[in-house]
Amino acid sequence: MRDVVAVINLDCIGNNILEITETITDDNGLNLQEIVMKASQDLNVKVNYAEFGGSDQETFRVPSTANEECRLIWGLDAGIANETRVKSSIMISSSPLLYSDEWIDIGVPGWVHTPYDNSTSSQTLGWIGVDRLQAHVQIAALSIMRVLSATQNSFLMQFYIGAAAISALTAVLIYSVRTKAHIFMKKVRHEILANFGIKELVFTIFLTGVYMFLSLALFTRVGRDEIVTFGFPTIVTYRYYGKPFEMIALITSHVGSGGTDINEWMVHMMMQVRAEGLHALASPPYAGNTNLLLPGLLLNALIFSLLAFLTVYVVVKLNYLREYFRSSDVKHKLEQEE
User: Fold this and answer.
1) Dihedral of alpha carbons 303, 304, 305, 306, sign
2) Comparing C-alpha atoms, which of 117, 124, 115 is closest to residue 97?
3) Angstrom distance (rounded) from CA 249 to CA 229
4) 215/178 Cα distance (integer angstroms)
5) Which residues of 200-239 are buried (b: 16+ CB within 10 A; e: fewer)?
6) CA–CA separation, 238 vs 258, rounded Å?
7) What pLDDT, on a 0 to 100 scale, did the predictor assign at position 288?
8) What is the pTM of this model?
């Protein structure tokens, strides 16, 4: 499985509405969900998130969960708990799927897992349409081609060439201005020592805190990411705070919009109840958790401290100019009186 780039599971396609499960960006930067969504848009096919998606792609996406389900349901160890995960695993399905979907969207039920899941429901009941089946297959095919194109790493050579060119240009610039840069640094040092004391330093620290607070309070983004709980990965909703770099991530929900968490959630609950008792069902185990994004926090602290320094420096300079002009006016008045 370590050689598998992505898994696209076509499970009951060809019905009225195309549905896909949720994925997140994998370790190689591949976002299969975005690729399938873009393919459907390019082919002018509407796509929704599936409410339930616990199908065969989950064995690839989370083999440890599939292994645990086999053990809990059948008492068998499939031996895949430690297999390499394929994060980019998605199910492409269509709705209505189950008979319980009756009167949803188009007013007819789905026939999968019933005696009518055959040519009768397709030809006589109009469950699967040839045109819709063709469109869904085309979306899968286009997605596969784009996955293969995205995994060729053609970008790496361009990146290496660009990095080499930038490094050479930077070396030339450093060599040409190194003496001037030394003089410039001496001037900067002198300017800081001449204009900054304890009071200015305190103002800079205070203003940095104000900028950090405003960044947290004014800039938020809702996103989806993956966490591991009870040893099983699952996709959760995060609210990210901070700008230009996000500093805090707050888990606001454990419910997956793509429905890929249903089987995992059942396994989690069974394991938790077995370990802690029935009271473990009282609340979700990871809603409300807060993660501190240390790299973003440090980068923002650096940026905002520089901004605060420049702000205080400008204020100090303006104050010096005001004092200078005021003393000049007083001197001018004294000269006139004399």
Assistant:
1) positive
2) 117
3) 17
4) 36
5) beebbeebbeebbeebbeeeeeeebeebebbebbbbbbbb
6) 15
7) 56
8) 0.65
Per the structure block, which two tokens stand in for 266? 């059942």
* Distance between CA atoms of residues 111 and 101, nearest Å: 9
Render pLDDT for 183-215 as a digit per residue (tens, 0 to 9): 766 777 777 777 778 888 899 999 999 999 999
Contact present, 85 and 63 (Cβ < 8 Å)? yes
User: CA-to-CA distance for 33 and 235, rounded, in angstroms?
Assistant: 13
The percent helix, strand, coil of the chain (3-state, each to 5) is: 55, 15, 30
pLDDT above 80 for 287:
no
Who's near 252: CB < 8 A, 6+ residues apart?
A: 222, 237, 238, 239, 287, 288
**Alpha carbon 212 to chain centroid, angstroms:** 22
- In 3D, which of 224, 204, 222, 185 has the Cα closest to residue 307? 204
**Cα–Cα nearest to 286, from 237, 216, 222:** 237
How far apart (Å, rounded) are the C-alpha atoms in residues 289 and 299? 23
